[in-house]
Design brief:
Number of strands: 40
Distance between the termini: 66 Å
Structural class: alpha+beta
Strand content: 25-35%
Helix content: 10-25%
CATH architecture of the domain at 485-745: 3-Layer(aba) Sandwich
CATH superfamily of the domain at 485-745: Alpha/Beta hydrolase fold, catalytic domain
CATH topology of the domain at 485-745: Rossmann fold
Shape: globular
Number of helices: 12
């Protein structure tokens, strides 16, 4: 009964807070349209760090406009820093007061609170470098820490406070690193002569990309500004500091050769370094070509990992790991005689036990005794059971906090599982959208993003039972005066009888009983809603927007979209919502590829748009040198799902190459591309334009010289507006032609 009252209170209070943001259909007519200008000014908040007690939040407010004007031609240049500006703020969670640390928008990274929770350290970009700054609560402005070294801070540097708050662990670059790295990039991108040799162990671009991982770990004394280099330059990552600050651990990676199957090719080794100095690093894990995926305890002196179904633990002081599950590899059940396979989830709060999972559920295993307890049993029907993901373990060790999401409806939230009573308690569970749950170190407060599913997120805070809910931000108050779409989850069956879901977005001035044009945005699977620029621009153009899901099968992915997308459309037509003659479809990247394949198999669309999507999977294999082996791996073992090499299954590559079937395309096609697209170079789309031109088909190719992957959306402000105007005008033109043809027949 108390849980029910609590749930009712939270739902009521949340609805009350968002009453001003929810809009009825009739009220939409009093609002103004959501435009591309509006899309550029929607603010999102990124909370980088929170003090242990949850009082102070270090965050950055940013818009899409803050990430524009990327120099896409410098993708792969280790010395290039992409723009990512925003408004840096400190939020007092008790009063809601915000402190803006800089008058202008800045680019910052690695915001971290000191151990005493009074000082914030971060890196601030100035020109093409990052500099260490600190900000003390109560002070008027941040302070630049002028390091006593001529070496630059690495752009991907970690920022780790010393345990006593006296200094910062960070990473530096060698004096000649920038000059050498830039030259390597220019030699390979501009020449004048470029030579690549397959006898060498690496692709040339892979050598350039590897430059980013070279760094020098160092410790800075904040008072004296002295810099002590801890190790020579190497390819170092995953630096961790023991809780008391006595040592650090780190991984050194040594690339061996270029590989195409994403396995091997790099040697990894785990080390420990005494921070007092005077001793050589100690090897903790010997060299291995298997990726080191470790789960560390709170003290950062012991780690756990899973291997071949067993869980191992090892202290940095131990010579080898201990298998703690070998005596618990029993049969899954009486009917299933396969052995239980365990994986690591997290350490308990006092580091005495591990939460691990198996085919049967969650278990807690004691580190010393190796006794195991089955604490949570998975439902018998896991296919239809809600998704549960552990987010936190209460400091007293009694409760697990888990996100909850139903698989057949929008029912989402947070639940608390009592490890003693084995009972689940709903803290909040409704149709709203919750994300980025953050639990304070002392376990007393919870922060989370909240949206009704249609509006942009805002930040909320509550106690650990989700009582005393308070809204901390109102990031986009102006949006209440804009026409915003509303969303609906649609269930349907594809051609093979698989149950799928799509998200339907209503025209902003929707009139029940009237049929509207429909534009599908396709990719893979969709389920959760949320604020989306694209859907709001479609809805404000008088269209339904639809994100249908597909069921992709390795070896035969091209069939998925004709089976799933068209079935979803049929469901909407049967519901009496959509004009079957006014259908549009588009997608970006993999979705653009899907769009071009789809219109070779059906002519039911009045218009289609491929945004930065490939059309020739064969030429695409070697069409993006800066991303090295990605395209081969994507086709053979990754997203493209061909499941074989070109030489093993050439017919499958042909079957998934839209340009081979360009003669079948009857749908007017718009293609949008970017000159600096490192992912899907415009040469790929150019093939389709020239093919359709040769075949006498209708095709418009719009190429943005300042853009990258995503075409005009990834360029400057002018191109962003042009991109959306071109796309929306194209749909309007083609839908109007449907009406004209209908009138002519009459």
């Amino acid at each position: 009964m108390p849980a029910k009252r609590n749930r009712t209170y939270v739902c009521f209070f949340t609805l009350l807070l968002f009453f001003s943001l929810t809009t009825s259909i009739t009220a939409q007519t009093e609002k103004t349209a959501f435009t591309t200008e509006d899309a550029l000014k929607v603010i999102s908040l990124s909370v980088n760090d929170v003090t242990d007690d949850g009082k102070y939040l270090a965050a950055v407010k940013a818009t899409r406009k803050d990430r524009q004007n990327v120099d896409h031609g410098r993708f792969g240049d280790p010395t290039y820093i992409s723009p990512r500006y925003g408004e840096m703020v400190i939020i007092d969670s008790e009063t809601g007061e915000e402190t803006m640390l800089f008058e202008n928008r800045v680019q910052v990274s690695s915001l971290k609170w000191s151990p005493d929770n009074r000082t914030l350290a971060f890196f601030l970009r100035e020109g093409d470098e990052f500099f260490l700054h600190t900000y003390e609560i109560g002070k008027s402005k941040p302070k630049k820490i002028k390091l006593k070294t001529d070496k630059q801070i690495a752009s991907y540097s970690p920022l780790i406070w010393r345990a006593d708050g006296s200094g910062i662990i960070l990473a530096l670059r060698e004096m000649d690193w920038a000059e050498k790295s830039r030259k390597m990039f220019l030699d390979l991108s501009e020449g004048p002569v470029i030579v690549q040799d397959s006898r060498k162990p690496f692709l040339a671009w892979e050598v350039v990309r590897n430059q980013s991982s070279f760094m020098i770990p160092a410790v800075v004394n904040l008072k004296k500004r002295d810099v002590r280099e801890l190790l020579p330059e190497s390819q170092i990552s995953r630096i961790r500091q023991e809780k008391e600050g006595s040592f650090i651990t780190y991984v050194i990676s040594k690339p061996l050769k270029t590989v195409y199957n994403r396995r091997g090719g790099t040697e990894y080794e785990l080390f420990m370094l005494d921070m007092a100095g005077g001793s050589e690093p100690k090897v903790i894990l010997e060299k291995t070509t298997e990726r080191i995926n470790l789960t560390w305890n709170d003290r950062n002196d012991t780690f756990a990992y899973a291997k071949k179904g067993n869980v191992f633990i090892q202290s940095v002081y131990d010579e080898k790991a201990v298998n703690i599950t070998e005596n618990h590899r029993t049969n899954v059940s009486e009917k299933d005689t396969s052995k239980l396979r365990y994986s690591v989830m997290r350490w308990n709060p006092d580091d005495s036990a591990l939460l691990i999972s198996s085919q049967n559920g969650y278990h807690i295993i004691d580190i010393q005794s190796k006794d195991i307890e089955h604490v949570y049993e998975f439902p018998e029907d896991r296919e239809s059971a809600p998704n549960l993901n552990v987010q936190n373990w209460s400091p007293d060790g009694r409760y697990l906090f888990m996100t909850y999401s139903a698989k057949n409806k929008w029912e989402r939230g947070l639940v608390k599982y009592d490890l003693q009573t084995k009972r689940m308690e709903d803290l909040v569970k409704d149709s709203n959208l919750y994300s980025r749950w953050m639990f304070t170190e002392n376990g007393e407060k919870i922060l989370y993003n909240f949206s009704d599913g249609d509006m942009p997120n805002d930040l909320f805070i509550a106690d650990n039972n989700l009582n005393s809910v308070r809204r901390l931000t109102n990031l986009n108050p102006w949006i209440k005066d804009k026409k915003i779409t509303r969303s609906e989850l649609v269930e349907y069956l594809d051609v093979d009888g698989n149950k799928l879901y799509g998200i339907l977005y209503y025209p902003v001035d929707y009139e029940p009983g009237k049929k509207y044009p429909l534009v599908c945005e396709i990719y893979e699977r969709f389920f959760n809603n949320g604020f989306h620029t694209s859907m709001n621009l479609l809805a404000n153009s008088g269209f339904f927007g639809f994100r249908p899901s597909v069921d992709l099968e390795e070896g035969f992915p091209g069939e998925a979209w004709i089976k799933g997308v068209t079935s979803g459309i049929n469901k909407l037509i049967d519901m009496g919502l959509v004009d079957k003659n006014k259908l549009g479809v588009h997608g970006t990247s993999y979705g653009g590829y899907a769009t071009n394949l789809l219109i070779t198999q059906t002519d039911r669309f009045a218009a289609a748009c491929n945004i930065s999507g490939k059309v020739n999977i064969i030429s695409f294999l070697g069409d993006s040198p800066k991303i090295t082996t990605r395209n081969y791996a994507a086709a053979e073992i990754g997203q493209d799902r061909i499941g074989a090499t070109l030489w093993e299954q050439p017919q499958k590559y042909i079957a998934h190459t839209a340009i081979m079937f360009a003669d079948r395309i009857k749908t007017p096609l718009l293609m949008l591309s970017g000159e600096g697209d490192w992912n899907v170079p415009a040469t790929n789309q150019r093939e389709m334009y020239y093919a359709l031109r040769r075949l006498g088909k209708e095709c418009i190719w719009v190429h943005y010289m300042n853009a990258g992957h995503g075409a005009g959306r990834s360029s400057n402000e002018e191109d962003f507006h042009h991109h959306w105007k071109t796309l929306l005008d194209f749909y309007k033109e083609k839908f109007d032609e449907v009406d004209k043809k209908k009138e002519e027949k009459m």
